[in-house]
Amino acid sequence: QKEVEQNSGPLSVPEGAIASLNCTYSDRGSQSFFWYRQYSGKSPELIMFIYSNGDKEDGRFTAQLNKASQYVSLLIRDSQPSDSATYLCAVNLNDYKLSFGAGTTVTVRA
Amino acid sequence: DTGVSQDPRHKITKRGQNVTFRCDPISEHNRLYWYRQTLGQGPEFLTYFQNEAQLEKSRLLSDRFSAERPKGSFSTLEIQRTEQGDSAMYLCASSLSPGELFFGEGSRLTVL
Fold it and tell me: Does B44 sit within 8 Å of A44, measured CB to CB?
């Protein structure tokens, strides 16, 4: 079983719609969760992190965490063409090892 | 520029040769990571330094891989006797907090 699993996509949404990305993880002891965005040909960049159950909002992005279900999600509201990228879910397995999923590719149609 | 810098950005080598990559982290960051990424996959953890101490090395790494971070500043990743399967993007990242990584632009390795 992979440590972090994501739907690879591609996920295609019209401009202005909500993009919903999902991630599950295997280690029940994981404590912190991250979403990175990676544009084609570029390096990953951190966009959000969440530590507690519930929702965390930052601008157009909302991260949701459900530790009982071992489930993390990212919502992108009012999607823009500039949001077209691969979104990587990452889970801290301990103090120093961040394990990444394979990523979900999002395409926002103008 | 105060970001993470990596050198070289691209390296083409023949199978069996040794290659070395350098990473200069953000100056105030004591945590430094090396990851490897192949097409369609997320970054795969290779190793972690806290200051100059290498605290974790992936079991996926063979003995051909070695990393150093002398004096807790820049780091080098050396691959000996390269194989075609080593072809990948090698990403360096630094941070102050666990998980909140700042990545460099990466060093792309092509082994012929």
Answer: no
